[in-house]
Specification:
With 329 residues, the protein is mainly alpha-helical. It has 13 helices and three strands. β2, α12 and β3 form a beta-alpha-beta unit.
Length: 329
């Protein structure tokens, strides 16, 4: 008869620490896929440390550096080592937040530098010509053009022109907590009933139905639904949000925004449950050039709000014209 091995005290301490870390990830909105990936990476660290009788709070930066070296010696790519170190940093950041450690030992361990390649980069004029080849006759065509332009701007922020943030999302726990508080205050029986009915639908239709049900929370007086022409992909939506939350927890965002040197305008609605001024103050350390404009009687969709749609488009045109002329682009 096979008997289950009794874990050693060190193994038990790792198991308990990783379980608490998984709870912490759930509380921070990380999805199952990300939590599973973290569990694999941190499970390898736990096995390696337990073999050396080292518990979670006993590992120092030299131990973590040796672990990274072992992973590399086993043939792991630099990107794999960097990913594991990112997971370890997040795990120890959580221990510091809980008060179980005074400092994060993983902060003293550098990730391996990725191999540098010299890609063939399109010049701004070539990007413009590429965008012009995409038809612009439908909302989806315009969306595709905007996404391609945004992708280029994200990779080469020094080559872009002025940027406008409309209905900007949250980038820290304080702003996210304020968002959840406002949503809870605006919920009513009708919205809750519609959300309950939406839960019975296919994932794509469920996402659309939930977004429609939440419109009274996010908008004032719309000219049309912002979702009527949407092609919904619930899986992509959740993966994108999961990645954004993970990158925020790992410290990549919003710190990476410091690379953006062009003028940036943030347009927000006073009724938007996303706390505009709080988000603005959180982004200013990384975007000192950031400007802020707020419309009254306006929610998350200013281009569709009856009271401000025309002023919104006027502001966009005037601000872009002024800043494009100033940049000589």
């Amino acid at each position: 008869m096979l008997t289950k091995k009794t874990p050693t005290p060190v193994e038990a301490s790792w198991a308990a620490a990783l379980e608490r870390f998984d709870d912490w990830q759930r509380a921070h909105g990380l999805g199952e896929k990300t939590r599973r990936a973290y569990a694999v990476d941190l499970g390898q660290l736990a096995d390696w440390a337990a073999e050396r009788e080292l518990g979670p709070r006993e590992l120092g930066h030299r131990d973590l550096r040796r672990f990274a070296g072992v992973v590399s010696e086993r043939g792991a790519a630099k990107s794999t080592v960097a990913r594991k170190l990112a997971a370890i940093r997040t795990f120890y950041r959580q221990l510091v937040e809980r008060g179980e450690l005074d400092a994060n030992p993983a902060d003293l361990v550098s990730s391996p530098k990725k191999d540098n390649y010299l890609p063939r980069v399109l010049r701004p004029r070539e990007v413009e010509e590429l965008l012009e080849r995409i038809p612009g006759s439908t909302p989806l065509d315009l969306r595709d053009r905007a996404m391609l332009a945004l992708a280029y701007a994200a990779a080469y922020p020094g080559s872009t022109g002025p940027l406008i943030l409309v209905g900007c999302g949250t980038f820290d726990l304080v702003a996210r907590a304020e968002l959840q508080k406002t949503i809870a205050e605006r919920m009513n029986d009708d919205i809750c009933a519609r959300l309950k009915r939406a839960d019975q639908l296919h994932p794509d239709e469920r996402l659309r139905a939930r977004a429609e049900a939440m419109l009274p929370v996010y908008a004032c007086d719309l000219l049309a639904s912002p979702h009527e022409d949407d092609q919904v992909d619930a899986r992509a939506h959740h993966q994108t949000w999961d990645d954004m939350v993970r990158l925020q927890i790992e410290g990549a965002y919003p710190a990476a925004f410091a690379e953006i040197k062009v003028p940036v305008l943030m347009i927000h609605g006073s009724f938007d449950p996303l706390p505009g001024r709080l988000i603005f103050e959180g982004l200013r350390p990384y975007l000192p050039q950031l400007e802020y404009r707020e419309f009254d009687r306006c929610g998350h969709y200013p281009w569709l709000e009856r009271a401000v749609a025309d002023p919104f488009f006027s502001l966009v045109r005037e601000w872009l014209a002024r800043n494009i002329d100033a940049a000589g682009t």
